[in-house]
Write a structure and sequence with these properties.
The chain is α/β, with parallel strands linked by helices. The chain folds into 2 domains: 320 residues, Alpha-Beta Barrel (TIM Barrel); 85 residues, Sandwich (Immunoglobulin-like), CATH 2.60.40. Helix content is 24%, strand content 25%. The protein contains 9 helices and 24 strands. An 8-stranded parallel β-sheet has the order 7-6-5-2-1-12-11-10. Strand 20 and strand 21 form a beta hairpin. The protein is globular, with a radius of gyration of 23 Å. It starts with a helix and ends in a 7-residue tail after the last strand.
Amino acid sequence: MARKSAVTALACLLFFVVARAEQPARPKPLLKDFLGINTFCERFRPELYRPTCHLVRNYHNYPWDVGDDSTTLPPFPMSTTRLSGSPEPIDWGKLYESWKQSGWDIDVSIKLQYMPAEKFKDVQRDAYQYGRAFAEFFGPSGKHKLVEAVEVGNEPAHWDAAFYKQVFQAMARGLRDGDPAIKVLPAAVQAGSPDKWAKPVDILADCGELYDALNVHKYALVEGWPYWSRSYPEDPAIDYLSTVQDVIDWRDEHAPDKEIWLTEFGYDASSKPQAEAGTFSKWMDVTDEQQAQWIVRSFLAFAAMDVDRAYLYWFDDDDTPSFHAASGITRNFEPKMSYWAMKHLYDALGDYRFSRVVHRETGNLHVQEYVHGERPEDVVWVLWRATDDRKKVDRTVQLPADPGKAERMAVTAAGPAEVPLVKDEAGGHKFELNGSPIYVWMTLKEAQGH
């Protein structure tokens, strides 16, 4: 009986074998060079969001620069037409300069979906001249040095793949000629048979010299219309992570030198009830706490994959209970829980890079390791329960060194809550886990060979 009790007690402890993970093909980015956010032109408040990340992606509508005539040479830095609600054409130079001065690295998504295909007079000429003019004025090695990257399209669902490819090739060549240092991406792509919002990645198989990274959009949808319900990022029943992995696999086979940028993902969280009737009467959002948890855990999940950047959709919302209309980390420019959670992630892991998955248990405990970019002996383990329930569970974890401190994900301006460091007689540390990640800082006696 005594021996059986001892075995049972040992079985109740969770021990981790510190094993080397296979090294990635390219160095993993520091988290501060991985985290990004989507925004929209003059609505963006660069100082407000700067504590959460320094990568920003802006929607820049192509028709604003050329009107309804594709032969128009855009008068940069000004737009040709004014934005809706704005009294004058926008000064792109002044706008992007203000962001740059606030410490942002800018990715511009040229939105093509508002330009009908028949409006192009000469696709090869018109798209090329636009790309060249844009890169010459805004590119990182030009006179103004404002924009780091450009996406040729966002989700041009109204164009077929063949026409999109013509526009992409021409505009990408213009961007390359205008400034070879500017990073070029296609619109959103998927492997296999894509949904209506993405183009088949196969169309890029013969034009690898024209782009630097593949562009992926993915939301954790369980159902589409009329519910638009979403699940937690690790849910094995949805294709949230697998769709991204499919593009990674395609890249590995066809374009191994290219990066992967996930430029849209996110969760709706509104404080208002759904509409009583109409299109969004059955729409389903998540709670503010779930939004915060699942955004942070999405970033962690993508960091563990061969993804080079991840941009959250969205920066601000006006609390409208409908699809994509409550996805901000601020609500009417007041921080939600997700704002503080993302800020904490940036503060905690900004100078660290993903190292390895220590433990992954479906529907339960996940542990990932992050290593400091300059001090490889300094590591952070991130622990959480990969589920959508709110249950708290005690788990004992064998850490590779005595922890210096531990914090639970922040959800308020007060910052993260300190997590007690309780060590048992067997040398393990007990943690009360739920869906909010816990960050554990440690210094190893010897640096690991990452």
